[in-house]
Specification:
single chain; outer membrane lipoprotein receptor (LolB), chain A; 12 strands; 21% helix
Amino acid sequence: MASNIQTILFVAFSSILFSANAQTQFIMKGRVEYEKKINQFKSIEGKEDNIWYKEMMKVYPKFVNDVYELRFDSKKSVYKLAKENTDNKYLMWGSKPSETDGIVQDLENKSLSTQKDVFENTYLIKDSLRKLEWRITDETRDIAGFECRKAVTKICDSVYVVAFYTDQIPVSSGPESFGGLPGLILGLAVPRLYTTWFATKLELIDPSIAQLNPVQKGKKVTREQLFAELKKGLKDWGEEGEKRIWVVSL
């Protein structure tokens, strides 16, 4: 009888240990698909009485969405377009995706390399990883089957960014050039650009060396040099010019 009880206790204890170990298994490499969605009509809200805008609202869809991917391991991540929605008609500047744009976050060396088309030019932005002051909250949300915690920061001094990250994937990266949190960002929103990014799928695959080291080209600049160039060229554009700088700042 005592022997049976000892056996039952051993099995139960082993099950608890196995369960605890399973829950502490972290995902360190894979591929995430994000749906990037933009509310195009928000940019012309309050101008519906204007005949030109009224006609545009008949031709262009309210929302456009495209699929992006993030391939990552513990040392590096690469973010780029996965699939453009061919049914889209883009109203907002900077919303049409580029097949050549790509963002490489080198987490080990804390560097960032971004190929980005801006107007008629292609830039290769070489800089350090962004240093964002995140405020982590107690709010959580389920995204693609992962419990994610909400964090908030600002870019360009006044543009709020909301992120949802999961510590089940302890890789400090995310869509666009965002990162710096204790886990992978699976949800992102920039309200003033009426844009969201939400993960829809995670694949447990091992990215190849080539996928994590894409060939990039363009005019080499730092982030500061590019923004100085843009501010000079857009100084007479007012609010519209400021919004375009926000888009490039992502």
